[in-house]
Amino acid sequence: PLAPRHCTDIICCVIFIVVILGYIALGVVAWVHGDPRKVIYPTDSYGQFCGQRDTLNENKTILFYFNILKCASPVVLINLQCPTTQLCVSKCPDRFATYIDVQASYRYRPDQWNYFRQFCKPGFNNPRKSVAQVLRDEDCPSMIIPSRPFLKRCFPDFSTKNGVLTVANQTTFKDGRGKTRNVTDLREAANGINNVLDARSVGMKIFEDYAISWYWILIGLFIAMMLSLLFLVLLRFTAGVLFWIFIFGVIGIIGYGIWHCYWEYDHLKGIPGSDLTVYDIGFQTDFKVYLQLRQTWLAFMIILCVVEVIIILMLIFLRNRIRIAIALLKEGSRAIGYIMSTLFYPIVTFLLIAICISYWAVTAVFLATSGEPVYKVMANQTLCKYANLTCDPETFNTTNVTKLCPGAQCTFAFYGGESLYHKYIFIFQLANAFVFLWLVNFAIALGQCTLAGAFASYYWAYRKPADIPLWPLFSSFGRAIRYHTGSLAFGALILAIVQLIRVILEYLDHKLKGTQNSFTRFLLCCLKCCFWCLEKFLKFINRNAYIMIAIYGKNFCTSAKEAFFLLMRNVVRVAVLDKVTDFLLFLGKILVAGGVGVLAFFFFTQRIPVFAQEVPMLNYYWVPLLTVIIGSYLVAHGFFSVYAMCVDTLFLCFCEDLERNDGSTAKPYFMSASLHRILGKKKLSPKKA
């Protein structure tokens, strides 16, 4: 890489720094206004947290609904709040009871009243108050039902008996208002709760499995790391062998397919009905019908013959380019062998992305919980004109709302506000997402440019490895940060804009899925497809632009243009190298993930006698198994991404070397001897001692 450097894309660098400072300021403001307790603790009708320390509700950790039947109301979907009084309690009710029955018997059965009133408003202890007034003022619930806590809220304790839904082995209950209801009404009110309960139960079991098997998972990932390193080292010697074994295997399989089609075609000769055409029998849902026709096997044989001829012709005409691709793969393995530190750079990228994700998530939570308690009128009468209007709980009883709407309550609805800050919470969340995408893409761009600079220093070393500079990875990282932060930020900005548009399109598609017509679905599908293709194209351009930045130190636009036209002048080589590299790296990922996955399967299912006693008792053995398989694939992907970056960098350097040099003493080639032998142009100039 050229040593004399200057700062590139300074304006974008300044904007990027300003945006980072603004992002930090946004996080500070969100931290000041936000309160994550609103997510952790449930909130009662008075805006108080259940279970919060040093409060009256410290020992009351569970939220209780006075009338859970009202939770089936459409108001729940509108206000995201059940229109009934909600109190913090220490435990959920464990029996059926109604206020009418308890009040009638409180004199000779005070224990029932003492139990029931713990679910009334704090301080209420007046069983002589008329039932109508109690229910109107919602001093106590009209009924309690056996419940169990879920997400710190009391929900009916559903169970199934002989295929019938029950609560405490009962199918009916009194609602405290003179009616007998079926427990299916409770199920409707708590719609989806059982599914969520099951999911909660599964989630807890999965957490337990992780807690007792995490060290075995780490061991599996360590094995995956060692296998990935071994595969990269062996690619120097086996890249060509693996590729040609695969190619000849494909040719052999297709050849067998041609023979089998001919055998079926000849075997059906003379069988009645086999000489019919596809047109004669028309469309059939049973595909086996077509296999009884000679015409079908003839068509298959012709198609396979054409594919076989195309592959053979491609191998004949592209043999030199395939040899170059394989030589570059071997050269990449050799380069990594000289600069082993590059294999561990993905850890730096991972840490940077982890920091970005953590900061984004924390900021998003604080933004979402930025707000003051908002209270709304919850009225029993649907025709009450004050229903769903905001109110002040301190002055509510002095207004005429309770007179016009008997039983109306001023209850907590949600967190929000009317200030300028609260009005633009959504904009701040959007900005949070956008800057997050920008920073993540910048971290990836920094890694690509750093690796490209290190591998370019290997290629342009005239005598390898003697002329490779000391600490090439750290030198490349320093150049990228010091001179090219603006260029990397520019490329990341373009990509982040496209990704944000894709996120918005996905959000719109999700929100409009139930109402959109066919044209809207088609339009959204086209837009999503177009921006997906645009994102892939930009990633390709950015990747090669960062390589040119690492080599020559020019700005982003110039580097992107030069990289694009250089690739276009070598488009066939690009295609061949890309496919050969993709195949070998995909094969490596499958081998690593599959090998470790098979080993993990035998281990966690106790099929390895030596380690049978060491296997932890799991609820679901597939939890650590899938984690190990996916983790191994990601570990292999991290190591192989370095290798892919190495090959791409060496390829661009190779193309530049061919265009700028001719192998003479004045302009010697910098490529390795093996690459030069494949080209077969001129002899390498003798390297200076």
TrEMBL record:
Hydrolase recorded as keyword: no
Coiled coil stretches, renumbered: none
Molecular function in Gene Ontology: antiporter activity
Alphabetical keyword list: Antiport, Cell membrane, Glycoprotein, Membrane, Transmembrane, Transmembrane helix, Transport
Sequence intervals crossing the membrane: 12-32, 214-234, 241-259, 297-318, 338-362, 435-462, 483-505, 583-604, 625-645
GO CC, any one term: plasma membrane
InterPro entries referenced in this protein's UniProt entry, alphabetically: Choline_transptr-like
Catalysis: reaction(s): choline(out) + n H(+)(in) = choline(in) + n H(+)(out)
Membrane topology, from the record: Multi-pass membrane protein
Keyword hit for Transport: yes
Function per UniProt: Choline transporter. Choline/H+ antiporter.
Family listed: Belongs to the CTL (choline transporter-like) family.
Name of the protein this chain belongs to: Choline transporter-like protein
Gene, per the UniProt record: Slc44a5
